Automatic annotation (TrEMBL):
This is histidine kinase. Residues 416-620 form the Histidine kinase domain. It catalyses: ATP + protein L-histidine = ADP + protein N-phospho-L-histidine. Its EC number is 2.7.13.3. Keywords: ATP-binding, Kinase, Membrane, Nucleotide-binding, Phosphoprotein, Transferase, Transmembrane, Transmembrane helix, Two-component regulatory system. The keyword Phosphoprotein applies. PROSITE patterns: HIS_KIN. The keyword Transmembrane applies.
């Protein structure tokens, strides 16, 4: 957001992005003369009369310098209407050393010991300078003299406003990048190791870009000229940090690349950046005596390395974009804009033999960093959604684990109790049957009741044994439609008693493997629960279909339904929402379905009904 505001301010101030080309000025100097010189130091006076001058103008982009010359004079005539409030702005003048003379008087001097030749000269003009000759002396190692901007004469306060506004965009953008980078570095202290390398590399990339934008602006070297050497060193160091940091970020996002090319590139850049950094220190200790060699390695060779890096990363970005990842597409679009602009400007810089001023790259960097911010926002949102999803899954797994542990304990207990209780019940039932033959009519009524209760207890024990160990016996192919015809015949009368009916829609060809008796037992329990939940004009719909090797069986009713609290506990041992229910029927159903490698899932809404979905492996897959 801060970067967007900064861009809005930069583009919103009239004339800021375009260098305030529309600022008013009373005169634009378009014609001048050039005199070549071999002076290596700032002269004390203007050149004498009688020298041979060459004609120059703003229409000529470059004025080639003779091989034996090291400096040049530029001469022009000041207008006659100069007042006390007038000033002169010399925009984008290239020279290591610069001096300005008005007549015989030196009114400006700059002798830089650091490698930054771009000058913006803003000077007030006194009334006594009206109509005087203006001489500009400059010394440069370039092969030509270039005046990229305009030479303006007009009201001093308007020229000052123009100069500040033309450079304010760099200051705003650079400050925005620095602010974002520092915030990311602070946040990185609270991240785990998984994201630390990516965040740190991105923060260093943004920090380096901010320093590059900040220290590339001529505003600093004009206003704080005494600190120019520090600014140039900051520029060089930030460039040496930028390349390996950006390669590391790219590698962390997309991997090592084809045959580890990205990883090898980053390793080389770390080594080469360290080499250039040590060379920078050595050159400073040697009082700049090795500057030519340092310039070769840190500018010319490093520029070639940057071009190769951009070409490799552009190719990699195009490859990763084809994979269809949305974050990758956003990243590659932003990076492509930055890399194409940067590559184009680097080529222009080398083709112009160093006379081209890089300025478009910072807007490419803005596009790229905005794309990274968008990706970061998407990444945080995606992580938040994943955390919520993982939390739900963890809760589900914990519930399933608790249920499995309970089932295991109850299964062992049920098997033990059932075996111990069944034998005494059978003996008791046998004796009661013997007594039936000798009992009187009045006594038989009580004996019949006792036998019924013993049979009910035996059924419960059978359910216990089925739950504890659902042995299927012979495993056969079951035609689902045939099985449900039998089930419908058993349960249809019960449904009619509750005022409802059962409909079955099952294709003939669908089949599963299992035990017919257990299969019927499981679905009879489910359908009986649906019947007992029916109200007036109740309907139970049974339908079945096959999908991806699984058979899906839906048992849907329009009964009273269940709340979320009841749904969450279905299948728990001894849980039942019926007044006289034991919960064993549904427990046995879950056990049988699980033993058939299937699953069962209930969805229900209070007052609407319930949908039980059972999935089983298809028999012919």
């Amino acid at each position: 957001m801060f970067l967007i505001i900064a861009i809005g301010i930069t583009l919103g101030i009239p004339g800021l992005a375009s260098g305030a080309s529309g600022a008013p000025a009373s005169a634009v100097m378009k014609e001048w003369r050039i005199l070549w010189s071999d002076a290596g130091e700032v002269p004390d006076r203007a050149p004498p009369e009688g020298e041979v001058w060459a004609e120059g103008s703003a229409r000529i982009a470059e004025h080639p310098k003779p091989q034996s010359k090291t400096s040049a004079w530029i001469h022009m005539k000041l207008p006659d209407d100069a007042s006390s409030s007038q000033g002169i702005l010399i925009d984008k003048l290239h020279g290591q050393q610069v001096a300005v003379f008005a007549g015989e008087r030196k009114i400006y001097e700059s002798a830089r010991t650091y490698n930054y030749e771009l000058n913006h000269v803003l000077l007030p003009l006194h009334e006594d300078l009206s109509g005087q000759d203006l001489y500009i002396w400059l010394e440069t190692a370039r092969d030509h003299i270039t005046v990229d901007g305009k030479i303006l004469i007009g009201p001093y306060h308007e020229l000052l406003n123009r100069f500040v506004r033309s450079n304010l965009g760099d200051i705003i953008l650079g400050s925005a990048f620095l602010f974002i980078a520092f915030v990311m570095l602070i946040c990185a202290a609270f991240l785990n190791n998984k994201y630390l390398a990516a965040v740190l590399s991105l923060a260093l990339t943004i920090l380096s870009v901010g320093i590059l934008v900040f220290t590339y602006s001529p505003f600093l070297y004009t206003v704080f000229e005494q600190y120019g050497s520090i600014f140039t060193h900051m520029y060089d160091i930030s460039l040496l940090v930028l390349l390996p940091s950006f390669s590391l970020f790219f590698e962390k996002i997309f991997g090592h690349g084809w045959k580890g090319m990205l990883h090898k590139l980053r390793q080389f850049q770390v080594f080469y950046s360290l080499f250039c950094f040590l060379f920078l220190i050595a050159n400073q200790l040697a009082e700049n005596r090795w500057f030519g060699l340092y310039y070769f390695f840190s500018v010319q060779v490093l520029g070639v390395v940057m071009i190769l890096q951009f070409m490799l990363l552009i190719g990699s970005s195009m490859y990763f974009s084809l994979k269809g990842n949305k974050d990758a597409v956003i990243f590659n679009a932003g990076f492509a804009a930055f890399a194409v602009v940067g590559l184009g400007e680097l080529l222009q810089f080398f083709l112009s033999r160093g006379s081209y001023n890089l300025f478009l790259w910072k807007w490419g960097a803005v596009v790229f960093i905005v794309s990274l911010i968008v990706i970061l926002g998407r990444h945080f949102a995606k992580n938040h959604e994943q955390i919520l999803e993982y939390s739900k899954e963890l809760e589900m797994f914990n519930n399933e684990l608790q249920r499995s542990e309970k089932m295991e304990i109850i299964s062992e207990l049920a098997a033990s109790v059932a075996h111990e209780v069944r034998n005494p019940l059978q003996v008791t039932r046998g004796f009661l049957q013997l007594l039936m033959g000798k009992a009187k009519a009045a006594e038989r009524e009580y004996l019949d009741l006792a036998l019924v209760e013993l049979d009910r207890a035996s059924g419960i024990i059978t359910d216990f044994l089925t739950f504890a160990k659902p042995e299927f016996g012979k495993d056969t192919v079951l035609q689902i439609s045939d099985e449900f015809k039998h089930i419908e015949g058993i349960l249809a009368p019960l449904a009619h008693l509750h005022g409802g009916k059962i409909t079955v829609d099952i294709p003939e060809e669908l089949a599963v493997r299992g035990n017919s008796s257990k299969f019927k037992q499981a679905f009879i329990n489910i359908i009986k629960n649906s019947i007992e939940a029916l109200q007036e004009e109740g309907l139970i719909q049974i339908r079945c279909y096959q999908k991806q090797g699984r058979v899906y069986i839906h048992v849907v009713d329009n009964g009273e339904g269940m709340g979320e609290d009841v749904l969450a506990r279905l299948g728990e041992p001894y849980f039942s929402n019926k007044t006289k229910g034991t919960g064993l029927g549904l427990m046995v159903t879950f056990r049988i379905i699980e033993a058939m490698d299937g699953s069962i899932h209930f969805t229900s809404k209070k007052g609407v009904g319930t949908d039980a979905v059972i999935t089983l492996p298809a028999a012919y897959e």
